[in-house]
Design goal:
Number of helices: 2
Oligomer: single chain
Largest sheet: 3 strands, antiparallel
Distance between the termini: 33 Å
Strand content: 15-25%
Order of helices and strands: EHEEH
Helix content: 10-25%
Strand order of the largest sheet: 1-2-3
């Protein structure tokens, strides 16, 4: 919305393995330092955060063979008032995941 490519990130090291066929919606590219944050722990965990996946969607079979359609984000839509971009992106991605080719009657 602001044209600044700034996304409020929480937990970009949360998703470590995605189901095969998942679509990554948001991922840090590690090319820029975070605007703020405190890192504790080993370099591997910090690297996972700096290059981590913040959101993905998956439509297919779960481990038990059931059809699923999920959209998950490791973030918060309401953490702070300055998160206009995140709220719009996350809520639109979630709403869009429910769209079908069959019109509502």
């Amino acid at each position: 919305m602001d044209g600044d490519d700034v996304f409020y990130a929480i937990g970009t090291d949360y998703f470590t393995v995605l189901p095969e066929g998942s679509k990554v919606l948001v991922q840090r590219d590690g090319s820029r330092d975070p605007l703020e944050g405190v890192f504790y722990g080993e370099d591997e965990r910090t690297d996972a955060f700096l290059n981590g996946i913040m959101g993905f969607s998956y439509e297919g079979k779960d481990k038990d063979g059931n059809d699923v359609n999920v959209t998950l984000f490791a973030n918060s839509m309401t953490e702070s008032g300055h998160q206009r971009d995140e709220y719009a992106f996350i809520s639109n991605a979630l709403f869009a995941s429910f769209l079908t080719d069959i019109p509502y009657r």
